[in-house]
Amino acid sequence: MLKVGDKLPAGTLSEFIEVEGNGCSLGPNNFDLAKAIAGKTLAIFAVPGAYTPTCSAQHVPGYVARATELKAAGVDEIWCVAVNDAFVMGAWGREQKTTDKVRMMADGSADFTKAVGLTLDLTTRGLGIRSQRYSMLVVDGVVKTLNIEGPGKFEVSDADTLLAQARQVA
């Protein structure tokens, strides 16, 4: 399992792009993690799934609300990662009003989630393999803080916790 001091694994995440430009085409685009994180400070949080109750009512809205403060604390980008496809993440992002605040990154086959060792098996609920709920601060690919929630909890991966940590790391 991923821990503080580890480098994020190589891999790819996808994002649905609404407006063509900056080298990205309209629709799903794949991003090589090593290139996307190089030289940046990222606030990354993961959720079990798009449109799920806690994720939609608290987790994503908290990061949208604190986006300006996180960026003022030295965070270059905020990423929400979920084991969903890029189309679902794009639609959910539109609904959550994440544009220019939080990048909605799809881990459709759970490859990234498996690589960091933070899977959550929800097959008995009909949801398959998902991601545990967590947040982390990543600087130039290295994990500086990692907040993993206990089963069914939402206590340490919220935006306020990661904002306080970002202010300490800055």
List the helices and strands and how they pair.
Elements: E1 12-17, E2 27-32, H1 33-37, E3 41-47, H2 53-72, E4 77-82, H3 86-96, E5 103-106, H4 111-115, E6 119-122, E7 128-131, E8 134-139, E9 142-148, H5 159-169
Parallel strand pairs: 3-4, 4-5
Antiparallel strand pairs: 1-2, 3-8, 6-7, 8-9
Helix pairs in contact: 2-5
Structural features:
alpha/beta, Glutaredoxin, 5-stranded mixed beta sheet, 170 residues
Description:
This protein has 170 residues and is of the alpha/beta class. It has a single domain (12-16, 26-169), classed as Glutaredoxin (3-Layer(aba) Sandwich), CATH 3.40.30. Helices cover 31% and strands 29% of the residues. It is built from five helices and nine strands, in the order E-E-H-E-H-E-H-E-H-E-E-E-E-H. Helix 2 runs parallel beside helix 5 (159-169). It is globular.
